[in-house]
Write a structure and sequence with these properties.
By secondary structure, the chain is α+β, with helices and mostly antiparallel strands. Among the domains are: 52-63 and 208-287, Elongation Factor Tu (Ef-tu), domain 3 (Beta Barrel); 68-97 and 174-205, OB fold (Dihydrolipoamide Acetyltransferase, E2P) (Beta Barrel); 98-171, Helix Hairpins, CATH 1.10.287.470. The chain is 30% helix and 39% strand. The protein contains 4 helices and 22 strands. The protein has helices spanning 2-35, 99-134, 140-173, 366-375; strands at 37-43, 45-60, 66-69, 74-79, 86-87, 92-96, 175-177, 182-187, 194-195, 200-205, 209-217, 229-233, 242-253, 259-267, 278-295, 300-301, 307-313, 318-323, 325-330, 333-338, 345-349, 360-362. Strands 1, 16, 17, 18, 21 and 22 form a 6-stranded mixed β-sheet that branches. It has a 6-stranded antiparallel beta barrel with strand order 2-11-14-13-12-15. The protein has a 4-stranded antiparallel β-sheet with strand order 3-10-8-5, with no helix packed on it. Strand 12 (229-233) and strand 13 form a beta hairpin. The protein is rod-shaped and about 130 Å long.
Amino acid sequence: MKKLRAASIMICQSILVISVMACTGEGDKKQANTDAVPVTVCKVQKVQDLEKIFVSGTVSTPDSPAEVSFLVSGKVISVGPREGDYVRKGQILASIDPTDYQLALTTATTQADMARIALERAEDEHRRMKMLYDSKSLAPNDYEKYKSAYESDRQQYEQAIAQEKISRKRLTDAELHSPANGFISKRSIEPGETASPGRSVFEIIQLDTVEANVGVPETDIHLVKTGQKVSVTIPALPNQSFEGAVRIINVSADPSTRTYMTRIRVPNPGHVIRIGMVAEAKIIGDQKISMMTLPGEAIVRDDQGATMVFVYFPEQRRVYSKRVKIGSFRGAEVEIKEGLSGNESIVIAGQDHLRDGMPVTIAAPPSEVASDKKGR
C-alpha cells in the first residue's frame, strides 16, 4: 500500500513539472511575439541612369548691380521708386533742388551772349584791319594789336560757351535717371536729405537672366563641363522647374568645403526667380552609370552621426544595422555607394524603434494593403 501511494505521488509531481514547463514555454513564446517590432522592408533597387550631380546653392545676378548716384550735390526734393519696383531706362528716379543750377545757367548764358557780341565786333574790326594791312595801308604793329584783341575775344567766348554747357549739364544732373531697365534692389536716400556726388543712392538689378551659384564636390567636378544642361528647382517656387546651362567653373576649390564654385545661367523671363533664393540643381551628364538606390527614409544615423540602414534577416526574423555611404538624392531615392551588396532587404518604416538584433514582424507596405482590399 505504501509503495502504491509513493508511485502516485511521483506521477503527480511529473505531471506538474510538465505542466509548468508547458506554461513557461507558451509564456516565453507570447513574450517574444510581444517584443517583435512591426516594420516594412524593401529590396535594394539596381538602376541605370545618366550621370547626374545634385548640388545646391543660391541665386545671384550674372552682372553686378548697377549703382546709381548723383553727379551734383544738393537737397533732395523727390524720390520715386522703392525696392522691388521695376524701372525703365531713362526714367526719373530722384531729383534735387535745381534753383542754384538754374541761376548758374542763366548767368552763364548771359555771359556767353555778351562774349558772342564782343567776339562779333572784334571779328568785324579784325576783318577790316586785315584788308588795310593786306593793301599796305596799315602798319604791321597796329595790325597785330587788332589781331591779338580778336583772338582774346574769341578765347573768352569759347570759355563762356564751355561754362554754359557745364551749367546746363549740372542742371540736367539735378535729375537722376535710370541707366537701364531693371528692378530697384536698394534705395538709400529720402526727400530732405543732402545728396553728394558719387554716393550710391539706388541699386538696379536685371532679372531677365539669373545665375545659380553652386558648389560641386571635388569627387564630381570631372563630370561637369561648360555648356552642360542643368535642371534647376527652387524650393520657394514649388512645382516649377527651370532649364539652365553651366556658364563657368572655377579653377580653384573653396579650401573649407573642397567644392568648386560653378555658375549656372538660368533664363528668367517671368521674373519669378529672385536674388538670394535657394536653388537646387541637377547637372545631367551624357553617360549611363549603374547604381544602387533606396528610399530616403531608409537612412538613419548612429550615435556617431554616421549613415546606416537596418538589414532584415528572414531566417532569424531579426534586423541588424549596417553602415553605408550615400551619394546624391534622386527624387525620393538616395544612391548607396558603399556598404551593401544589393541583395539585402532594408527596413524603410519602423526603424526609429529598432536596435541591433531585435526581432521584427513584417508589415505589408501601404500600397499592398490597398491592393489587397481592392481585390476583395
